[in-house]
Design brief:
Elements lengths: L2 H21 L7 H32 L3 E5 L5 E4 L1 H7 L3 H4 L4 H5 L5 H14 L8 E7 L5 E13 L2 E10 L1 H74 L4 H14 L9 E7 L2 E10 L3 H6 L2 E3 L3 H9 L3 E3 L16 E10 L2 E11 L6 H22 L3 H13 L5 E6 L4 E5 L1 H7 L3 H4 L4 H6 L13 H8 L3 E8 L5 E12 L5 E10 L1 H15 L9 H18 L2 E10 L1 H8 L1 H17 L6 E6 L2 E9 L2 H16 L2 E3 L2 E3 L2 E9 L11 H17 L5 E3 L2 H20 L5 H13 L6 H20 L6 H17 L3 H10 L6 H19 L2
Parallel strand pairs: 22-23
Antiparallel strand pairs: 1-2, 1-5, 3-4, 4-5, 6-7, 6-11, 7-8, 9-10, 10-11, 12-13, 12-16, 14-15, 15-16, 17-19, 17-22, 18-19, 20-21
Helix pairs in contact: 7-8, 7-11, 8-11, 11-12, 19-20, 23-24, 23-26, 25-28, 26-27
């Protein structure tokens, strides 16, 4: 019997069983009649059932999902084509096989067996009539995600199950990927939220830190400036202390230094008291600017009397800003004032008192007191050194005291072999050495890492200068610390001289000036380069321009100067604003730089004016090529933020050497003026072009110079011989003097002479020449009488009617004269 026949038989049996159940309910008296009808009906149902079974079979075979039937023994009784594709078993391999051993993973075996036992008895299970997502296993052992719907069917009293299984592996994979992606996004959001929060906190922290740093920097700058001046005074006092002069002179010079300090608000008078041996009395030993009566009143003061005596007895600084009961010494007419009385101590020993005067109401300042304490410490060393009987021993004590009270690095050098014999703690800290590593070593080996003295390596050596001259010497060096790091150092060398006048040792003071050097570099940059375009500014341009002239004159080569003015820039700057104008200027500077060589110089003269120095050109046409490139480059549109603008440029060119320029006349001012005049000619001819400074322009200037010079020399009165000499000079300048030209020159000469007498300062030759040239330049810009009058007012020339008439005549004649040249 085939599988289909077996299935049909089972279904038929189930139907029969159902019919039997139904007939039991029919009344007994109708059984015979109904039985006949039922037989007929059964035949019809059987036929319909067979057709339905065939349709159902085809549907299940064509279904995309696996359709599996399991009998009451747990064996597979139906296995469609999709089941074969999903699980990899053919129908022959699957039928009559335990379902759980084919597709149920091992881990679920026991649960399946327990659930099936309940299902066999009741047709009920926790997966029956429900849809579940489970895991199944294929023939090759791989697990797949499936969606299972199970229904229970009772056949001949036994429960069978029908399952529809769909492979949802791809869907589950997508769901898992989507879940992972969702988790990843949530993680990213959390991380970025934390980062933003952290960044916000860091920014806030940074802002607070910057505020503190700015405040600390300001305090540090103030302190550095203050320390700088303190050290200058202390260094100078140290040098004074080492000089072979009497102690009184040393103390008086020290007082001069203190009183000249700009930051300390004291009156320009002071004195120093010294203690007498074995006596509690102060004696005025040195003073500056004290009136004679004070020198008498305060010649000798016992300990404990007045402010100076109290400072000596208490060993503390006494300060008052008004005369009070502590100021015991007084006299009629004494003005109100205050004092700083600072004891000069050496350990517990009082050497004296420094007495300074302050104006009434002076506010006590800690910086002043710190400075004065440093001064008194230094004075203590000076006094002890001056009083010492054992000069060598006391000198060593003095040196150690002073060296270690300074903020600068100090070393003492034996000038015979340049070996270091003393060093202070600042040096050891600054250079990173131990004292044992420095003492006995040569200075050039320690601070320069050289095996020979500095002067043998072409390094300026202030120590050698001091040895040779016996005087103080200064310079700046780059030193190396122990780790090889470079330090900019300001070096100060002072001699120590023996009783024979010979330099035996040298005090070498080294100040770290790295910060100052870096600051100077920044200042130099600001002083020589334009802040907006970063091009050389006017100052640096003139420096390089004068250098180019000197080199061209020496090496006999040609160079050109281009004077560039941006056309219509003022319109853009006024309409769009300075921000747009600044962007345009920076872009224009960049475009100009693109068209010049590295050896050339492009500079900003101010506003919208630029210059270019083209060095070592072969012929003037080379300058014309560069000018064309610059004009074309500047003609391209400018994209300024949200605006597009177009400008052009007018360029004037002057070339060195110019054939009509005498060698003595060539200078930067002349060449620049020539290029400027040529630029204005380019503007007058329509802009967006370049123009060379030409012979015509040069001849006009030559004519004016010779004519004005002639009038000045002859004081407006000249004879026939003077006229001949005048014409001869014009011929030397290249003028062809026809009768017509001579007549016009005579007219010009007469007009200038008339104007010469109408100007008050008749000795000002430059004013005369520049006046006429300015009139011509005004016309190049704009033929405006108003501009002419304004220019003459600025030149402080009286605008008389006859002056203006002469100027008009000269201008008309020169314009007519230019046509014939």
């Amino acid at each position: 019997m085939t599988k289909e026949e077996l299935t049909e038989k089972k279904l038929f049996t189930a139907v029969v069983a159902s019919l039997r159940s139904y007939t039991d309910l029919v009344k007994l008296e109708e059984t015979s009649k109904i039985l006949d009808a039922e037989v007929t009906q059964h035949q019809r149902i059987a036929k319909a059932l067979k057709i339905s079974e065939e349709i159902l079979l085809k549907l299940t075979l064509a279904a995309q999902d696996a359709v599996i039937m399991m009998d009451s023994s747990g064996l597979i009784s139906f296995w469609n084509k999709s089941a074969e594709n999903i699980f990899g078993y053919s129908s022959d391999e699957a039928l009559n096989e335990p379902l759980h051993r084919l597709i149920v993973p091992q881990v679920y075996y026991q649960g399946f067996v327990n659930g099936f036992e309940q299902f066999k008895k009741t047709g009920i299970g926790h997966v029956v009539d429900k849809t579940h997502e489970l895991v199944a296993i294929r023939r090759d052992g791989t697990e797949i995600d499936v969606e299972v719907s199970i229904s229970a069917v009772q056949v001949e009293g036994h429960w069978h199950s029908v399952g529809i299984i769909r492979d949802i592996t791809n869907r589950k994979t997508l769901e898992r990927d989507l879940h992972r992606h969702h988790q990843h996004l949530e993680t990213l959001v959390e991380e970025r939220t934390l980062k933003l929060k952290k960044a916000s906190e860091e920014i806030e922290h940074t802002n607070e830190y910057l505020k503190l740093e700015i405040a600390e920097r300001k305090q540090l700058e103030t302190k550095l400036s203050y320390n700088y001046y303190i050290q200058e005074v202390i260094n100078t006092m140290l040098q004074i202390a080492l000089e072979q002069i009497p102690l009184k002179n040393k103390l008086e010079s020290s007082l001069d230094l203190v009183l000249s300090a700009p930051w300390i608000k004291v009156q320009k008078k002071a004195c120093i008291f010294l203690t007498q041996d074995n006596c509690d009395t102060l004696t005025m030993f040195a003073q500056r600017h004290l009136p004679e009566y004070l020198q008498v009143y305060c010649r000798s003061i016992p300990f404990g009397k007045c402010l100076c005596g109290l400072a000596a007895s208490t060993r503390k600084t006494m300060y008052i800003n008004h005369v009070n009961e502590l100021h015991e010494i007084s006299f009629d007419g004494m003005p109100d004032h205050g004092h700083f009385c600072i004891p000069i101590k050496s350990g517990s020993t009082i050497l004296g008192v420094l007495n300074l005067y302050v104006v009434a109401g002076h506010k006590r300042d800690k910086l002043e007191e710190d400075f004065l304490l440093a001064v008194t410490n230094t004075l203590a060393g000076i006094i002890e050194n001056g009083k010492a009987e054992d000069a060598l021993k006391q000198s060593n004590v003095f040196i150690h005291t002073i060296l270690n009270s300074m903020n600068d690095s100090v070393i003492v050098i034996d000038v015979n072999d340049f070996r270091i014999i003393e060093v202070n703690q600042v040096f050891l800290k600054e250079y990173g050495y131990l004292e044992a590593e420095v003492k006995g070593s040569t200075c050039y080996n320690v601070i320069h890492r050289n095996s020979t003295p500095c002067f043998q390596n072409n390094i300026q050596c202030p120590v050698m200068t001091t040895v040779q001259t016996g005087k103080h010497a200064k310079t700046e060096h780059i030193h190396l610390d122990k780790d090889g790091k470079e330090i900019y150092i300001g070096c100060s060398s002072s001699p120590i001289i023996n009783e024979l006048g010979q330099v035996i040792q040298c005090v070498y003071v080294l100040r770290n000036i790295s910060e100052r050097k870096n600051f100077e570099k920044q200042l130099q940059r600001l002083a020589h380069f334009d802040a907006l375009t970063s091009l050389p500014n006017r100052m640096l341009f003139h420096d390089r321009f004068n250098g180019a002239i000197e080199m061209a004159r020496r090496d006999k080569y040609m160079f050109a100067l281009l004077f560039i003015d941006l056309d219509n820039f003022k319109i853009i700057n006024d309409t769009l604003g300075h921000d747009y104008g600044d962007i345009l200027l920076k872009e224009a500077a960049s475009r100009i730089l693109e068209n010049v060589r590295k050896s050339d110089t492009a500079a900003r003269m101010g506003g919208d004016e630029f210059t270019v120095i083209l060095v070592r050109i072969k012929e003037p046409e080379d300058a014309a090529v560069v000018a064309k490139k610059i004009i074309e480059s500047l003609n391209r549109p400018f994209y300024l933020k949200d605006k597009v603008c177009n400008i052009s440029a007018s360029i004037g060119i002057s070339v060195y050497p110019f054939k009509n320029n005498n060698e003595y006349r060539i200078n930067g001012e002349l060449l620049l003026k020539q290029a400027d005049i040529a630029m204005y000619r380019a503007k007058k001819q329509g802009k967006n072009a370049f123009q060379f400074y030409t012979d015509i322009i040069a001849k006009i200037e030559d004519l004016i110079d010779v004519t004005v010079d002639f009038i000045i020399q002859n004081k407006g009165v000249y004879n026939h011989q003077a006229w001949i000499e005048f014409l001869f000079k014009l011929q030397e300048k290249g003028f062809e003097l026809s009768e017509r030209i001579n007549n016009k020159i005579g007219c010009i000469l007469e007009s200038i002479r008339t104007m010469y007498y109408s100007i008050e300062n008749t000795d000002d030759f430059l004013t005369m020449a520049e006046l006429v040239k300015t009139v011509i330049s005004i016309d190049e810009l704009n033929n405006s009488t108003l501009n002419m009058e304004k220019c003459l007012i600025e030149m402080e020339i009286s605008l008389k009617n006859d002056t203006m008439a002469c100027i008009s005549d000269i201008f008309r004649l020169l314009e007519d004269f230019k046509i014939d040249m």
